[in-house]
Amino acid sequence: MPLTNDDKKKKNMPQTPENVLKDLKAKKYAPIYFLHGDESYYLDQISDFIEKNVLQEHEKGFNQIVLYGKDTNLGTIVQNARRFPMMAEKQVVIVKEAQQLADWSKADSKKIIEAYIKQPQPSTVLVFNHKHKSFNKNTTLYKLFDKQAVVVESKKIREHQVGGWIEGYFKQKGYQANFKATAMLTESIGADLGRLQTEIDKLLLNVNDQSKPIDEHLVEEHVGISKAYNIFELQKALGVKDWYKIRQILMYWEANPKSQPLIPTIAMIFQYFCKLLVGHRVTDKSDQNLAKVLKVSPYFVKDYKVAMRHYSLGKVVHIIHYLREADLQSKGVNTRNTSDAQILQELVFKILA
Question: Are β-strands 124-131 and 91-96 bridged in parallel, bridged antiparallel, or unpaired?
């Protein structure tokens, strides 16, 4: 089904991934899709949907072409796009990793693609999947795409938006998650939407009862976050200077070194104390404002407030210096044959001193 006049008007407005997918599911296909941005998750969703659903399986052999940016050029893409479908209403041409096309800026190539954009083959669905960065919007070529094609820009979501995305994804799958489960996924995975989807899907394979909310225990069990000995428990213990708990965690990690590699551990502790530094420096220390400026779930704000009482601004500055030293040691600088466990133990001792 082609786009209607109303759809064409909509096409020239900024498009959301959700709206584009809605049209695709209604079999409303545009001749050209230009997908770009630094968040690959939505770009791949659209591209993969087109690849799987526009043509029936028996039509794909002659009418579906997948090209890769590093192995092709704009002339070849247009040549394929101008073909007529064989024994089908449509043909699909998908250009994956389109950011690797070497001739985006070549004058001759631009003329070829610009001519096609102005007068595309109606029976072709041409998709450019330009990942990891946005296309230069000041170029004539982009402005032409924006005018004539369905353009979707997908930007990475901010950390404080991750919890809402997780809740929405669970809801889309017919489940609900409690606040702590959402917060735990947010803190452990962050804004990597592709990984979040993978981990949530894996978790849901082990859930049979949709009437019960997903809780933190299910997350701990199925997302590989150890309940007692993960980095978040160490951060919490450092925040309240719980020597006994800290010692337990360090002993466990020393006995199981693969459970918590040193370099990412130091990076996570560094991020934690950087948040304390920011928290000390803001004037408005209300829960709402701290959640916003620290880019954390409101659930964890109380823990940061407790930690700020245990570590003064001056102490936090010194700790960040110790963390930088430990980071260098973890990468082989001035280690004196020190083990990873010893580096971490020395760092923690300095933090707590």
Answer: parallel
Residue type, 205: L
Residues 201 and 217 in one domain: yes
Which pair of tokens denotes residue 141? 């070529």
| Rounded CA separation 152/30 (Å) | 13
3-class DSSP assignment, residue 29 = strand
Query: In the block, which residue shows the tokens 């006049």?
Result: 5
Contact criterion met (CB below 8 Å) for 301 and 284: no
pLDDT of residue 289: 92
Number of domains present in the structure of the chain? 3
Q: What pLDDT is attached to residue 5?
A: 44
Residues 126 and 141 in one domain: yes
Residue at token pair 């890769």: 68
Instruction: Single out the residue in 196, 222, 248 at which a domain terminates.
Output: 222
Q: Whose structure tokens read 């209604």?
A: 26
Residue 45 has pLDDT above 60, yes or no: yes
Rounded CA-CA distance 265/298 in Å is: 23
Q: Tell which wins on pLDDT, 261 or 259.
A: 261
Q: Tokens 């094609």 sit at which residue?
A: 149
Please check whether residues 249 and 317 belong to one and the same domain.
yes
Name the residue range of residue 125's domain.
5-153
Report the length, in residues, of the chain.
353
